[in-house]
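Customer escalation, tier 2.

The customer says the design service returned an amino acid string that "doesn't look like it belongs to this structure." They asked us to rerun it and document both sides in this ticket. The original structure tokens are below, unchanged.
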């Protein structure tokens, strides 16, 4: 997911955060081509391209509050549990 971190952080990180998704499609692309590669890839991906305008600090809070992960039960091999960060 691409996310805008504001002009200063986008510049500091060489557009690596706000055009990050294209890096997962083409991992060896240099940072100075991320913007143009993203613009070229958007029409190809169509609905599969995702960008989020949620401010980074709010998105981080949502991730901490709402994300779940899978943990294997050590007593019952092959049993997995979905947990939130605060369910541990």
């Amino acid at each position: 997911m691409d996310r805008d971190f504001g002009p200063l952080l986008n510049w500091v990180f060489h557009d690596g955060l706000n055009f990050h998704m294209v890096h997962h499609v083409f991992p060896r692309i240099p940072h100075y081509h991320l913007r143009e590669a993203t613009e070229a890839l958007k029409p190809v991906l169509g609905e599969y391209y995702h960008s989020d305008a949620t401010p980074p600090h709010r998105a981080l809070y949502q991730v901490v509050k709402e994300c779940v992960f899978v943990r294997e039960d050590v007593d019952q091999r092959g049993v997995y549990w979905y947990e939130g960060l605060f369910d541990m």
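Tier 2 assessment: The sequence is consistent with the input. The beta strands are 2-3, 51-52, 68-72, 80-84. The mean pLDDT is 82. Sent an explanation to the customer and offered a walkthrough call.
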